[in-house]
Amino acid sequence: QSLPRQKLLTWLSVLECVEVFAEMGTARVWGEMGRWTIIVLIQLAKAILRLLLLLRYKAGIQTSPPIVPLNREQQQPLHPQDVEGNSSGKDQTYVGRRSSRVVRSLQSTPSLQSRHWGSPQQREESQSRRAEEMNQPPTPLGLQETIAESIYITRPLLHLLSLGVWGQRSWKPWLLSAVLDISSLSLLSDLKDLNRRERAELRRRTILLLYYLLRSPFYDRYSEGRILLLLRLLADYVPGVGFVTRPLMDYLPAWQKIYFYNWG
């Protein structure tokens, strides 16, 4: 990737990592007005960065997190003995005569720190497959798909604007945000030949529609009592589940207030 695009992705990742901490810290120091100010500033910065990536650098469907986390186990280099013996895979493994199981030979066993529980061929295949997935270019977006992605990017800003106009207890911001999310997914559903990361991102966005059950005012009027009743029943009648459900019941009001109003 080009250096400017990589910098934009880095800044976008930093914003996504610190946004909740910044919101809670600002609320503690400057109160509710400061909290909403930092929310608007962060969402505005994220929208600008994402629109630059979409319109100028043709980043396509943008994933969350913007930079895929590094899997250090899969990125570990092969043992030097493995590298030297790539051309002669038979020297590294032994195939059982009866079971046909592939076992690494003792001569090619790596050190404990870089040891893995698969054959050298399996590891090489997984590393090459992951490298191909990471290096796949984004799927080109047409006008319809670009509009759909732009809707998804600007949806938090429109939701915040509607909250300022109609208030947090109104159904209009909730309905507006839901319509924008569903419209974006519907317009992107016609896109074919997506790579693996983009298909996973669309599945993630579809699953996150369930968050609307936890957003006010739907949560305040319909979901809260039913969810708490279900968690209480699980804690009382299912052995061992109470260790999870009781803390969840205590933290759910705070999570609902912080996480479930404008970002998915």
TrEMBL record:
InterPro entries: Pex16. The keyword Protein biosynthesis does not apply. Residues 72-91, 106-116 have a biased composition (Polar residues). Its main location: membrane. It comes from the Eukaryota. GO terms for cellular component: peroxisomal membrane. Residues 122-133 have a biased composition (Basic and acidic residues). One of its GO terms (biological process) is peroxisome organization. Residues 68-140 are annotated as: Disordered. It is found in: Peroxisome membrane. Keywords: Peroxisome, Peroxisome biogenesis. Belongs to the peroxin-16 family. This is Peroxisomal membrane protein PEX16. It comes from Oceanodroma tethys (Wedge-rumped storm-petrel). The lineage of its organism: Eukaryota, Metazoa, Chordata, Craniata, Vertebrata. The gene is Pex16.
